[in-house]
Amino acid sequence: MNETSVVIVRSIIAFGTLLIFTRFLGKQTVSQITFFDYILGISIGSMAANLSADIATDAWPYWVGLFTWTVLVLCLQKVTMKWRQASIYFDGEPVIVIMDGEIMDEVMKKLRYRISDLQEQLREKGIFDLKEVDYAIVEKDGQISVLKKADYLPVTPRDLQLKSTYKGIGTELIYDGVLVRNNLHQLQKSEEWLMKELKNRGYTKISDIFLAIIDSNGMLFIDAYHDKMKNPVDITDFKGLK
Amino acid sequence: MKEFILYKLIPFLILAIFIFTMKSGDFLKQPLVDGDDVIGMLSLVEQSIQEGDWKSAKKQINQAKEGFLTVQKRVQFSVEKNELNQIGTSLNRAIGFIDVHDQGGAKAEIEEIKFAWEGLGK
Question: What CATH number is given to the structural domain containing B65?
């Protein structure tokens, strides 16, 4: 038995299976997952790891385990998508821990959520004074959402009755030295126009550009491969191994 | 159509190949080329032992071992390493018993190989 080739083949199976199964499971991002989802992910990953390298055991049981867990997660996703009550039952729901500036201590006890946890999460949000908080909600994934009191909210152009210009999102015209023709055509711009813009800024070739983005006002942001900075700031204090 | 091929057909085909690779042990252990009929050769070894023809038994058990090494290459991706090790160990033991003309020991080992072979890839 050639252990190396067996592990390689089994790893390809585990990798491919995991890739396909996770595509079936959809686009729920890591930031949205609950504690249970996290454990599900670990269990599925652990089965894939065993499928890959545990050659003392047949690959098939691990694959069936992987398949079964994926189907169960898929079923749970479908059920919680369809029925809100099921979603609340399985995933829980957001809980208000500060209401009208007052800490809901009974609710926090139920959640086994300490005041130090609350303070820590508020600090992560840039809030160091509890007085500033009007509402704080612990979301399903354990993250906290905060609504500050009106006095502490930042001033917006609307508050000052200022006119603001629409920004929209930028569109990539050159990505990693390659022209994105599709985007150029969608914006009804020509390659000649782009070359002219590049020349105005001292660039001669598209392949010299790392990234070029055009915003909704037609302003170009260009970053070339060769940085012109003579003395870049080095923020590390690690000078390498001597 | 393109979407169907990319997102349905190709993933299912890949999964089907994976399943075949993992479940092919039972099929691939069957004799497919010359000299890989392990169970057939073991029957001949048993017969030779019964007749006391130790010279033929030795030759046949070595052929069975050669056959096993061929089959092992085919089934290694779909069976347990321990199952293959067990069959390999029993084959070597059987060779030892045949060398010392121990009929009981040789027959016991052959029976063990047959039993392990039966479960291989299942």
Answer: 1.20.120
For B80, the closest of A5, A20, A56 (CB atoms) is A56
pLDDT in tens, A136-186: 999 988 889 999 999 999 898 888 889 887 778 889 999 999 999 999 999
> With contacts defined as CB-CB under 8 Å, which chain A residues touch B11?
20, 23
The pLDDT value given to residue A85: 87
Chain A residues lying within 8 Å of B84, measured CB to CB: 1
* Angstrom distances, CA of residue B28 to CA of A8, A28, A80, B21, B38: 20, 41, 44, 10, 12
Find chain A residues with C-beta within 8 A of B18's C-beta.
13, 16-17, 63
Contact A171, A177 (CB under 8 A): no
pLDDT in tens, A56-66: 888 999 999 99
CATH for the A95-152 domain, from 3.30.240.20, 3.40.50.2000, 3.30.70.100, 1.20.1260.10: 3.30.240.20
Cross-chain Cβ contact B11/A58 below 8 Å: no
CATH H-level, domain A171-224: superfamily: bsu07140 like domains (3.30.240.20)
Look at A223 and A236; give whichever has higher pLDDT. Answer: A223
Cα→Cα distances A16→A10, A154, B22, Å: 10, 48, 14
- Closest Cα in chain B, distance from residue A184 (Å): 25
